[in-house]
Amino acid sequence: DAWRAVSEAVANSVEHAYKVPRPDGFAGLAGTRWGMFTQLRDEMFTMAVCDLGCGYRATIAQTLPEVFISEIAATFVRANRDAIAIHTAMEYGRSGTRKSERGKGSRDAISVLQKHGFGELMILSNTGWMQYTFANGKEVSKTQGALGIDIKGTIVWWKLPLKEMGNDRS
Question: How far apart are CA 116 and CA 109, in angstroms?
Fold first, then answer.
């Protein structure tokens, strides 16, 4: 089920976002580990899961060997370090929990698009972002960039059409 990946994104936020302290010392809000926002508008479903944790760059070293991180970084000349961390997690991601019943880390977020067939996934983490676009069950674009500010957290955002071209999916 595609929506299992959504619950994995929330679980990842709760379990990983606060494992490493943020450089500014903020430990999160008491009783609030994450937030979720949804919208249905013009045949488009949008959902975002947000946390105020340490971000992808701080946690990726705990789950992936440095060689994978360096390999991805080498392909992104002058890229934002947070965007590189997101992309590395998507390429080589695995569950940091080491539990067999858990998902594959950040790859669960993209599996929503793979299973739905169409849509966009955007992940913003601290100062960087990655965007993945799918059509007909295949990735059609992957872009990255810098935000220009530090959002001091992570946002995982999906945009899914409820109708395909000529086919009713609702």
Answer: 12
For residue 25 the two structure tokens come to: 């010392």
Q: Which residue has the tokens 């390429």?
A: 91
Per-residue pLDDT tens digits for 77-86: 667 889 988 8
156, 109 Cβ separation under 8 angstroms: yes
Please list the residues that pair with 17 across neighbouring strands.
none
Among 68, 58, 62, residue whose Cα is nearest residue 128: 58
d(CA 8, CA 168): 27
Angle, vertex CA 114, rays to CA 111 and CA 115, nearest 5: 85
Cα–Cα distance measured from residue 132 to residue 112, given in angstroms and rounded to the nearest whole number: 11
CA distance 130 to 114: 16
The model carries a pTM of 0.81
Which are the contacts of 146, defined by CB distance < 8 A and separation ≥ 6? 80, 82, 83, 127, 128, 129
| pLDDT higher than 50, residue 28 | yes
Q: How far apart are CA 151 and CA 168, in angstroms?
A: 37
